[in-house]
Specification:
Blueprint (H helix, E strand, L loop, with lengths): L5 H18 L22 H4 L3 H9 L5
Length: 66
């Protein structure tokens, strides 16, 4: 769990995206939004994830890799 380790969460997300692109598989995010994600961060909500500039760069910035 990364509830008290935001830097570890960023590193995990970057490693996950790197592995998916090395495998050539890409990825699909599990949900656009969840009830209640308007007021805080929820890692299961892509809408919530994209509000975080660093996570947005990890997930969308990596889409140009091949």
């Amino acid at each position: 769990k990364f509830s008290d380790d935001q830097e570890g969460y960023y590193e995990f997300c970057q490693a996950m995206v790197d592995v998916m692109y090395q495998a050539g598989a890409g990825f699909t995010f599990w949900s656009w939004r969840l009830y209640g994600d308007e007021t805080g961060f929820n890692a299961w909500s892509l809408r919530s994830v994209l509000r975080d500039d660093r996570l947005k760069a990890i997930f969308l910035g990596s889409s140009t890799q091949s």
